[in-house]
Task: structure prediction
Amino acid sequence: MTPYYDVWKARMGLPPVGEMARFLRPLDKEFGPEAVERALGNYLDEAGKFVSLARFAHTFKMWAPHLSLTDNRCVNHPAEFAVATVSRRPLCRSCFEAL
Result:
């Protein structure tokens, strides 16, 4: 969890270590530390002071445009890549923001 700790500390101050382990470990296993570190930095840069690691984990693909997501299309707009999953349904950015 060290790279995530450093990314968080540089932008936000003291990291919530327990919460980081809970929400980032599964992403780390699935996508690798480099992808998660980059996406976390993107999220923290955009989210400002209102951050939630649970929300970050839920919307991970929105913050990781550098990943190949060709197999994950929005259920409402098949031409669009999904950036989040809600009730096991992949949604594009516009569908997710409309919730």
Notes: The helical segments are 2-12, 17-31, 33-47, 53-58, 60-63, 93-98. The CA atoms of residues 8 and 14 lie 7 Å apart. The chain has six helices and two strands.
